[in-house]
Amino acid sequence: MSRESPLPDLAALREEYAAGGLAEGDLAADPMTMFRAWLAEALAAGLYEPTGMVVSSVGADGAPSSRMVLLKGLRPEVAVGPEGAAGQEAPGFVFFTNRESRKGGELGAEPRCSLLFPWHPLERQVRVDGVAEPLPRAEVEAYFAGRPRGSQLGAWASPQSRVVAGREALAAAYDEVSARFEGRDVPVPAHWGGFVVRPESVEFWQGRPGRMHDRLVYRRAGTGWRTERLAP
Fold first, then answer.
1. Model confidence at 224, in pLDDT bands (50, 70, 90)?
2. Beta strand 124-134 with 73-75: parallel, antiparallel or unpaired?
3. Do the beta carbons of residue 90 and residue 78 sit within 8 Å?
4. Strand runs (DSSP E) across the chain, as ranges?
């Protein structure tokens, strides 16, 4: 067995952030408009997986758990009137998952959760605290129909988050599902679905020199938002 390469002094590793700043005057009127602007810049910069986000949930024992998923949609911001009014839609962040996975089960039992978008090359983060709501079945079916066939088959073959005997067992399950649906469309598994996370607060973080980072947060205030600056 080869010897492991020694690690550098982790305490001495650091980057000096100096790409820019974030002032109150830079903020949009609502967090979803602001998020769309920052996401567009992340896409334009060619970041790897710019829609990747950390979803943190809480189990029945109070223990937190986190994992990476992909953002698959954004809900528009409500400009006027109460949320849920006819012709209007509450803001939210959409993703899809196996509802029987650890995150699916935890969000089903305790919908309060947190999202984090780590856009390190831009020296930015976006943090979202909110409540997860299950997506309507029709929306789940429409999204699933547009997935690559391999991903559709994987949704049937993988008992996500559960212990399996080995890679061979997963391969055998995939082959069985592939044969079962050969020559026809793959339907949505009953256990597969999605969530929209309705934000209660959205923090925009921009790195600054000397660790004096800019942290501006939108907080829900009735049908609108108020903004605050947090110390770094």
1. very high
2. unpaired
3. yes
4. 52-58, 64-70, 73-75, 92-98, 112-119, 124-134, 192-206, 214-221, 224-230
Q: For CA atoms 66, 57, 74, 139, give the dihedral sign.
A: positive
Q: In terms of Cα–Cα distance, which of 126, 98, 147, 128 is closest to 206?
A: 126
Q: Within 10 A of 153 (CB to CB), how many other CB atoms are there?
A: 20
226 vs 153: which has the higher pLDDT: 226
Question: Which DSSP category does 121 fall into?
Answer: G
* 211 labelled catalytic: yes
pLDDT digits (tens, 9 = 90+) for 46-75: 999 999 999 999 999 999 999 999 999 999
Angle, CA of 202, 91 and 61, to the nearest 5°: 60
- The C-alpha atoms of residue 205 and residue 108 are separated, in whole angstroms, by 29
Burial of 148 (0-12, 13-18, 19+ CB in 10 A): exposed
User: Which of 137, 149, 162, 211 is flagged as catalytic?
Assistant: 211
Q: φ, ψ for residue 8 (rounded to 5)? A: -70, 175
Phi, psi of 147 (to 5 degrees): -75, 155
Contact between residue 207 and residue 119 where contact means Cβ atoms under 8 Å apart: no
Instruction: Give dist(CA 188, CA 130) in Å, integer.
Output: 27
CB 219 within 8 A of CB 27: no
Per the prediction, the chain carries an average pLDDT of 90
Distance CA 63, CA 212 (A): 31
